[in-house]
Amino acid sequence: EESCPFDGFVHKLKGLVHGKQTTEDSQQCFFVLSHISSIIAGTSKAVLNKSQRDFEDILIKLLLQGASPPVRRLINSCLCDVLRHGKNISMYSRVNDLLGYLAKNVSSNSGVEYEARIGCMECLGALAYAHGSQLAQLLGETITVAARQMRSSDARTRSAALLMVKAVLEGTGGALAEQQQIEALKMAKQGASDRSDVVRMAAGDCLQ
After folding, report:
1. Could you read off the pLDDT of 158-203 as tens digits, one per residue?
2. In angstroms, what CA-CA distances link 67 with 49, 75, 125, 173?
């Protein structure tokens, strides 16, 4: 039956995410997400729609559990793809969820909350790059969030903020309000003189 592959993998992922997380579970999440990523485009919209809400909830939950960078990349890919090939109306609430998490979590530089914060910025960047033309009005808030994250003492956080800004600028294709574009340029220039190499590199990418 057509629904089996996608629905089955989503069910398996749900069991892993809602259980007690172990290193083995993280590895299993990676493999399951890899399989899901490979079949989304070939799965009918009707089948995707049946499990999409549940799947998106699982992806966000996994992200906020402090998923590792390889798993985060798959989360971002799967979320962007399922919104492209399934229903896309929920992308607005997903962006709001990520912005809301970043708005209330700005201080931790270690542990699960830290990885979740980096992951949220990466996910916002991925969504902006893939669906920016549809999200331009909402994504203006990411510039405000990025400016707040740029005040962090952690170089990786500042770098992630700049890379998120870069993705927003590219994904929206100049559709942001003028003041937001000015603020983005100001952040990039600030980053270009940062004491950290990784932040300066991100700023250079942003200014290209």
Report:
1. 999 999 999 999 998 877 888 989 999 999 999 999 999 999 999 9
2. 25, 9, 16, 30
In angstroms, the CA 58 to CA 63 distance is: 9
Please, are residues 136 and 93 in contact by the beta-carbon 8 Å criterion?
A: no
What is each CA distance from 185 to 32, 35, 196, 200, in whole angstroms? 39, 39, 18, 14
Q: Which residue has the tokens 């980096």?
A: 118
How far, in Å, CA of 147 to CA of 17, rounded? 32
Nearest to 125 by CA among 88, 67, 64, 172: 172
Query: What does 35-65 look like in DSSP terms, one character per residue?
Result: HHHHHTTTS-HHHHHHHHHHHHHHHHHHHHT
- Are the CB atoms for 202 and 155 separated by under 8 Å? no
What Rg value do the Cα atoms of the chain yield, rounded?
Answer: 17
Provide the whole-model pTM. Answer: 0.92
Q: What is the pLDDT of residues 144-158, one digit of tens each?
A: 999 999 999 999 999
Dig out the tokens for 104 from the structure.
Answer: 């209330």
Helix ranges restricted to H, 65-196: 69-85, 91-104, 111-149, 155-172, 178-192
CA angle, corner 156, sides to 112 and 195, nearest 5?
150
